[in-house]
What we know:
mainly alpha, two-stranded parallel ribbon, globular
Amino acid sequence: MTDAWKQFRDFVERTEDLPVGFLVRAACKTDPGDEVAAAYEAPFPTVDSKTGTRAFPLMLPTSPEDPGAAEGQRVLEALQGDRRPTLMLWADSDNIIPPKTGERFAEAIGREKPKPVANAGHFLQEDAGEEIGREIADWLKAG
C-alpha cells in the first residue's frame, strides 16, 4: 500500500464524521466543484449513514495474515483463469492506487498493462468521464 493509502486509512480510522465530498475532491486531479462534492455527500447525511464508508478501507487486508486476504487470493486465482476479453483503464495520476499497482495487477492476472487515462486521479470518472465512456464504447464496438 502507498503512503497516500496509509494516510487515507489512518484518517478514516480516526475520523467519525467522514467528509466524503472533501475526500473525493482531494483524490481528483482536477477539483470537480461544489455540486459534485455535494452529490457524493448526499447519500451520507448522518454520521451513522457513513458507517459502511468508514468500514470499507479498514477491512482491506494489508498482509497475508489479515482477515480477507485468503479470499482475495482466491479471487486473484480465479481472475488468472478467466480468459474473457478485458478492458483495463487506470488513472495516470492516482496517488492512492498508482499506475504501477495497476500494472502489477494486470501482470498477476495475465492481462496487458492497463491503458492510462491522462490527467486523472483516483476518481477518474470525475476527471475523465467522457473519455472513459468513449474508451468503453469503442472497446465494446470492436469486440
